[in-house]
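Course assignment 3, question 2. Fill in each field.
Student: A.L.
Task: Predict the tertiary structure for the chain below.
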Amino acid sequence: MTTLRHLHCWALCLLLLMLSGTSLEATAQDSSARVVLAIHGGAGTILRSEMTPEVEAEYRAALRTALEAGYAVLLADSSSLDAVVAAIRTMEESPLFNSGKGAVFTSEGTVEHDASIMDGKTRNAGASSGTQHVRSPIKLARAVMEHSPHVMLTGTGAETFAKEQGLEMVENEFFHTERRRQQLERAQQRERGEAPSGDAYLIKTDWETDNHKYGTVGAVALDGGGNLAAATSTGGMTNKRFGRVGDSPIIGAGTYADNETCAVSATGHGEYFIRGVVAYDVAAMMRYTGLSLAAASNAVIMGRLTELGGTGGIIALDAEGNVSMPFNTPGMYRGYIDEDGNITVKIYRDE
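Answer field:
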């Protein structure tokens, strides 16, 4: 009888110990959970001398709005995929950035979009290119990843798929803005060897026309489950011709994510990012050489990309919540929210 009681006591103690251990482990996991988000809105010749205080304030506010939108998703225990889509959607709806509503014109006077997304947990990816009527290119890229057997869809085929998925479709004119139309006109004037003409204020302050042709938006996120995601969306290059596609929809060039290394979204002269497989190169350097995120990011952007003759930058994030945002241009619209919820927004190199 005594022995039986002792066995019951030991069983009860063991059960309590197991429950206690499980609870402590769960608490430890919860306390170590971190969520981080970083975004960019394009890199280029962005100078204080050519930016009015009013325009600068608009960009900073738009970047902050994108960060807050994505971070709110992370705080709601949603996935890093949900967070990057939420952040990019705010920029696609803003006329300030070269994506969605604010995208640049092709040489034919139309607007075309490219986008991509990648899940660091599974390394599944989706992309779309050359669409003209899908309101949210980043939503289309995610739909390709989650609801098709393919990684990339283009043109009319991508739009047919978008309709089948119930994504919102709009007329191409929905994306047209006067600012971008004037950029196209001046680009074509220069192409013909003519001096730009028109409103002196626009010519002086619209640095995007002359020096910032490769704008893009992107986001990288780390969710509470330790999963990374990256996404990129763009209107491409002002006055682009012949069906040109840049790096933004190309997995490994403009977008890459792997929980074991990092998540990357790129912005810049796409041809060079494609040749250098820039986004993947950062992850590969971390994996094969053991470099930190900062060391790998700087080696790729300030070293390999620059040596190749390319210009631009990246935002990168690892599973520890470390953020790196190197670029070799005078400025890059960028920002992040760290694991403590602190918001940082920057534009110029000296910030």
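Instructor remarks: Residues 1-32, 197-213 have pLDDT under 50 and may be disordered. The first strand starts at residue 36 and ends at 44.
Grade: pending
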